[in-house]
Design a protein that fits this description.
Blueprint: H1 4-13, H2 20-30, H3 37-47, H4 49-70, E1 74-77, E2 80-83, H5 92-120, H6 125-132
Helix pairs in contact: 2-3, 5-6
Length: about 140
Protein backbone atom coordinates (compact mmCIF):
# COMPACT_ATOMS: atom_id res chain seq x y z
CA UNK A 1 0.00 0.00 0.00
CA UNK A 2 1.24 3.42 -0.85
CA UNK A 3 -0.90 5.41 1.55
CA UNK A 4 -3.46 5.24 4.32
CA UNK A 5 -6.09 6.34 1.81
CA UNK A 6 -5.26 3.32 -0.40
CA UNK A 7 -5.59 1.06 2.63
CA UNK A 8 -8.95 2.55 3.64
CA UNK A 9 -10.13 2.33 0.04
CA UNK A 10 -9.16 -1.36 -0.07
CA UNK A 11 -11.17 -2.02 3.10
CA UNK A 12 -14.16 -0.12 1.74
CA UNK A 13 -14.14 -1.93 -1.63
CA UNK A 14 -13.19 -5.45 -0.52
CA UNK A 15 -15.62 -8.24 -1.40
CA UNK A 16 -17.05 -9.82 1.72
CA UNK A 17 -18.97 -13.01 2.15
CA UNK A 18 -18.05 -13.05 5.83
CA UNK A 19 -16.22 -11.01 8.47
CA UNK A 20 -12.82 -12.64 7.97
CA UNK A 21 -10.98 -9.90 6.06
CA UNK A 22 -11.85 -6.90 8.23
CA UNK A 23 -11.46 -8.85 11.47
CA UNK A 24 -8.05 -10.13 10.33
CA UNK A 25 -6.95 -6.59 9.52
CA UNK A 26 -8.30 -5.40 12.89
CA UNK A 27 -6.37 -8.15 14.69
CA UNK A 28 -3.15 -7.08 12.98
CA UNK A 29 -3.76 -3.37 13.52
CA UNK A 30 -4.62 -3.64 17.21
CA UNK A 31 -1.39 -5.56 17.82
CA UNK A 32 0.80 -2.89 16.28
CA UNK A 33 1.02 -4.25 12.74
CA UNK A 34 1.59 -7.98 13.26
CA UNK A 35 -0.48 -10.85 14.63
CA UNK A 36 -0.02 -14.61 14.75
CA UNK A 37 -2.46 -16.97 13.07
CA UNK A 38 -3.62 -18.07 16.52
CA UNK A 39 -4.38 -14.47 17.54
CA UNK A 40 -6.26 -13.83 14.29
CA UNK A 41 -8.26 -17.05 14.64
CA UNK A 42 -9.15 -16.16 18.22
CA UNK A 43 -10.40 -12.72 17.15
CA UNK A 44 -12.45 -14.20 14.29
CA UNK A 45 -14.08 -16.75 16.58
CA UNK A 46 -14.82 -14.07 19.17
CA UNK A 47 -16.52 -11.87 16.53
CA UNK A 48 -18.28 -14.59 14.53
CA UNK A 49 -21.77 -14.35 16.00
CA UNK A 50 -23.18 -16.80 13.45
CA UNK A 51 -20.72 -19.50 14.48
CA UNK A 52 -21.40 -18.83 18.15
CA UNK A 53 -25.14 -19.11 17.50
CA UNK A 54 -24.58 -22.38 15.61
CA UNK A 55 -22.75 -23.83 18.62
CA UNK A 56 -25.37 -22.47 21.02
CA UNK A 57 -28.30 -23.95 19.07
CA UNK A 58 -26.89 -27.10 17.47
CA UNK A 59 -23.86 -28.34 19.36
CA UNK A 60 -23.97 -27.55 23.08
CA UNK A 61 -27.42 -28.96 23.87
CA UNK A 62 -27.25 -31.88 21.45
CA UNK A 63 -23.70 -33.03 22.06
CA UNK A 64 -21.94 -32.49 25.38
CA UNK A 65 -24.89 -30.87 27.19
CA UNK A 66 -27.37 -33.70 27.29
CA UNK A 67 -24.69 -36.33 27.83
CA UNK A 68 -23.12 -34.52 30.79
CA UNK A 69 -26.60 -33.95 32.21
CA UNK A 70 -27.45 -37.63 31.68
CA UNK A 71 -24.21 -38.62 33.43
CA UNK A 72 -25.03 -36.37 36.41
CA UNK A 73 -22.14 -33.91 35.99
CA UNK A 74 -24.31 -30.87 35.22
CA UNK A 75 -27.86 -29.53 35.45
CA UNK A 76 -29.56 -27.36 32.83
CA UNK A 77 -31.55 -24.35 33.99
CA UNK A 78 -32.97 -22.58 30.92
CA UNK A 79 -29.96 -21.31 28.95
CA UNK A 80 -27.54 -21.96 31.84
CA UNK A 81 -25.64 -25.10 32.72
CA UNK A 82 -24.50 -25.60 36.31
CA UNK A 83 -22.08 -28.11 37.75
CA UNK A 84 -23.73 -30.77 39.84
CA UNK A 85 -20.98 -30.55 42.49
CA UNK A 86 -21.26 -29.06 45.94
CA UNK A 87 -17.63 -28.01 46.01
CA UNK A 88 -15.81 -24.72 45.74
CA UNK A 89 -12.75 -26.30 44.19
CA UNK A 90 -13.34 -27.56 40.68
CA UNK A 91 -11.34 -30.37 39.02
CA UNK A 92 -10.28 -28.33 35.96
CA UNK A 93 -6.98 -30.19 35.67
CA UNK A 94 -8.78 -33.43 34.80
CA UNK A 95 -10.63 -31.69 31.95
CA UNK A 96 -7.42 -30.11 30.69
CA UNK A 97 -5.61 -33.47 30.71
CA UNK A 98 -8.49 -35.09 28.82
CA UNK A 99 -8.49 -32.40 26.12
CA UNK A 100 -4.70 -32.74 25.76
CA UNK A 101 -4.98 -36.52 25.45
CA UNK A 102 -7.64 -36.11 22.75
CA UNK A 103 -5.43 -33.82 20.68
CA UNK A 104 -2.38 -36.07 21.16
CA UNK A 105 -4.32 -39.08 19.83
CA UNK A 106 -5.73 -36.98 16.99
CA UNK A 107 -2.22 -35.84 16.04
CA UNK A 108 -0.99 -39.45 16.03
CA UNK A 109 -3.86 -40.50 13.77
CA UNK A 110 -3.22 -37.68 11.31
CA UNK A 111 0.53 -38.36 11.32
CA UNK A 112 -0.09 -42.06 10.77
CA UNK A 113 -2.42 -41.40 7.82
CA UNK A 114 -0.01 -39.07 6.03
CA UNK A 115 3.13 -41.06 6.86
CA UNK A 116 1.70 -44.32 5.53
CA UNK A 117 0.27 -42.54 2.47
CA UNK A 118 3.65 -40.96 1.75
CA UNK A 119 5.52 -44.25 2.16
CA UNK A 120 3.14 -46.40 0.12
CA UNK A 121 2.46 -43.81 -2.57
CA UNK A 122 -0.88 -45.15 -3.72
CA UNK A 123 -2.32 -46.09 -0.37
CA UNK A 124 -6.05 -46.17 0.09
CA UNK A 125 -6.57 -43.27 2.53
CA UNK A 126 -9.94 -44.61 3.65
CA UNK A 127 -8.49 -47.92 4.82
CA UNK A 128 -5.53 -46.17 6.43
CA UNK A 129 -7.87 -43.77 8.22
CA UNK A 130 -10.05 -46.68 9.31
CA UNK A 131 -7.06 -48.59 10.70
CA UNK A 132 -5.75 -45.45 12.46
CA UNK A 133 -8.75 -45.59 14.81
CA UNK A 134 -7.12 -48.65 16.36
CA UNK A 135 -4.43 -46.36 17.86
CA UNK A 136 -5.32 -45.68 21.47
Amino acid sequence: MKSIEDFVDLIRKTQMSHIYKPVMLQAILKRGGAATKAEIAEDIIRRDVLQQEHYRRNIIDQQPGWRLERDGAIKKDGETYRLNLNQNRLPCEACTRRVCKYFNVLFLRIFFIFFVAAVSGSANLYSISHRSHEIK
